Amino acid sequence: MGVGYFLDTYAIYEIIAGNPRYEDYLSKDSNTSILNIAEIYYRLLREFGESFADDKTLPLFSVALSIKPLTIKHAMLFRLKNKDKRLSYADCIGYILAKENGLKFLTGDKEFKGLENVEFVK
Q1: Which residue from 20, 67, 89, 94 has the highest number of Cβ atoms inside 10 Å of its Cβ?
Q2: pTM higher than 0.70 for the full model?
Q3: Sign of CA dihedral 115, 19, 24, 43
Q4: How far apart are CA 25 and CA 17, in angstroms?
Q5: How far apart are the first and last CA of the chain?
Q6: Measured between alpha carbons, how far is 51 from 72 in angstroms, rounded to an integer?
Q7: In which element (H, E) is residue 69 found?
């Protein structure tokens, strides 16, 4: 079994958009969070409409990880430690969820480039 991945909103969008740099990740075990699903749903809804957003986000619910109170605490400590990067709540929670679940945090968000446990793909 290979490495599992946590897909942040950036990665999900790039996969849906067909970015060839993300093609290899289609066959990998991956998870996300309900917060990332909310973010991607809103972006797809805004850009492509309700039907498209429904079709693309529905499968994600089956791989959404639970967010526990301690995850939120650790995520907000991480956010405070990195306040100069202006990271979103969802990004910080996703990053901590990835670490807690032994997953690589897959993103193209420049603010995460070079951080531990991040697979950065532009």
Answers
A1: 94
A2: yes
A3: positive
A4: 13
A5: 25
A6: 32
A7: helix 69-81
